[in-house]
Structures are given as structure tokens and as C-alpha cells.
Amino acid sequence: MTDTDIFLKIKSHLKEKKPFVxxxxxxxxxxxxxxQKEATQYxxxxxxxxxxxxxPFSGDKKVFIPAKVSDVFTAKISIENLVATKVDEAPAINxxxxxxxxxxxxxxxxxxxxxxxxxxxxxxxxxVSESEIDIIEVYQRLLHTYPNAFRYCIYTPDxxxxxxxxxEQLLKxxxxxxxxxxxxxxxxxxxxxxxxxxNKEKEEQQIVTDYIMSSLQEYxxxxxxxxxxxxxxxxxxxxxxxxTAELKNNNAxxxxxxxLHPTPAVCGMPKAEAMQFILExxxxxxxxxxxxxxEMHHDFTAGSNNHTNLFVNLRCMxxxxxxxxxxIGCGITKDSNPEKEFFETVNKSxxxxxxx
Length: 356
What we know:
CATH class: Alpha Beta
Domain Chorismate-utilising enzyme C-terminal: 98-348
Protein name: isochorismate synthase
Family: Belongs to the isochorismate synthase family.
Shape: globular
CATH architecture: 4-Layer Sandwich
Mean pLDDT: 92
GO molecular function, one term: isochorismate synthase activity
Keywords: Isomerase
CATH topology: Anthranilate synthase
Largest sheet: 10 strands, antiparallel
Oligomer: single chain
């Protein structure tokens, strides 16, 4: 099967309302498609199931595409199916949305200064309307534009149609070796200019790193990290630290995932209190934004077992008819500036705007 066949299969599955996912891992030049044979909606019952999971930011309803009821195809991406992105155009600023988000950030800063939180992650949504949204072209633009991201397109009856290009790995487990990342801090990438990180951004990233390290200590006696470094994802750069741990046993996967998700990079610290603050104050339902997705117990691209590869669902959108619902957020600390944080979300929105 060619990549063109896989893209055509997306259209037929959408028409028949059958679950599917098509994805390309960071740095690879091949797409993998998992196409369910019938329209039944499945959920992840146990963390030993083999297939593809799509989990929300909050709640227990983890959508699942089981391998045993699906056809799996992998194909090299052909050059003729790579679609260039549109020219960057800064969006018009919605003053009401700007004011609302800045009020949310101000409220978050006030809460942090009381000592209840170390960090909060606030987000908002934008709707981009087009006369027609061709999901195949959108996904091909994602493939072309963000080669270092996990690029996906997924549909299930419960979730609807989502696509995105996320730079953040939740975790990867091969046998007992676990890899994850601490990713935080955000700047607009400007070619030729040296990236300089402020204390606020360094502090934000260190909070994430410390949380991951403490979360893994219960499950591993051997944890190593790289020094923080600048990582580019499209038109955005972040501070990134790579973390590796050797798990004590193979039965800890569910506990580790539940411990790491949601990370401080998408929620805040302390986690339970930060999630409650978000649910009470953001004013909209994140759904699957800042949840996680990926392969469970099998590498469907390479065909190997004992492999779990999950990503945090960032830089994503939900497509409803000819509307693209964009989800964008940023980490808040006591030193945050509300207006600056709003324009950080504007910069992040360009990741998805330029492929619609």
C-alpha cells in the first residue's frame, strides 16, 4: 500500500464513520495507518491491550483502536504528497478574547502568589472558519512542515476528527527502558538570532524536570538526565531535558502513565489542585487537548513488540465541518506577564493556522 492509498482510506473511513488513526513519528519519512474494520467504539480497559490510545486531559474515558480488529499499513511518504504550508499571516486580534485570557492569567498569577501553586498552565481555544477544510491536505502540510513532531490524524465516533503535530513525548518504553522529556519555556523562533532564556522560563522548565524525576523514583533505581537544551518545534523553541529510567518491572506502565499525566507542562503543580483550578476557571472543555495518544505495547511502524510510545496532545485542532477548533496554552509562574502570555498563545496558534 502507498501513502496515497492510506490517504484515500482516511476519506472512506470518515464516510463510513469507522475509527482510524494515521501517524508519522518524529524524524521518520513513513506514515502508519491503523484502520478499524467496523464502526464500534472501543475504550482502553486494561493497560495490557495492544493498539492505539487517545486519552483526554481529564476523565477516565480513554478511546482505543485495538490492533486485533484493525488493518495496519505503513508506507513511505512520497515527495508529491508533501504539501507546502501557506504563507504566515498574523491573525487579527480578538480584543474580547485577549482581555478574557489576560484576566485568566492574572487570576492564575494571584493564585500562585498565595503559595498554593508553583505553576499553572492556562489555555484557550480559537475557531478558524474556512469555506472548505480538506483534512488530507491539512495532514499533508503537517507532514511537510513539522518533521520533528509526532504528526497524526485520528477519528472515532466519540472524539470526532482531530489532527496535530506535537513536539512533546509523554513517554516511550522498550521492554524496561523508559524515555521521557521535560519540555517547557516558549519563544518565537527567529532565524539567525541566539536564543536567550529568562529566569521565568528556566524556572518553569525546572519545575517540570523535578516533577518527572520525583515521579519516577518509585518505579526506577536508575534515572539519568541530559542538561537542558534549546529544542525547535516549527516556529517555536522550547527548553528540553531528556530523561531515561530503567523500570524495576514491566507491570508498572499504568501507574507510571497515571503519575506523569497530566505533566506540569500542561497542568501545573501541585497536579491535583492545578487540574481543579483549570477545570473551574478556564471556561471551556479541553477535551483531548493536552491529553495523550500513541502506540500501546507494539511498534506498528517497525513491527516490534514490548513497545509503548505516547505523546502529549499539543499543537492540535479538532475539525468540525469547516471549522478548525485550535487549542493553545502557556505555563504561568509568579513572574508571568498577562499580555506577553496572550501573545505567546498567538504565536503558538500559527503552528496550526499555517496548515489549514
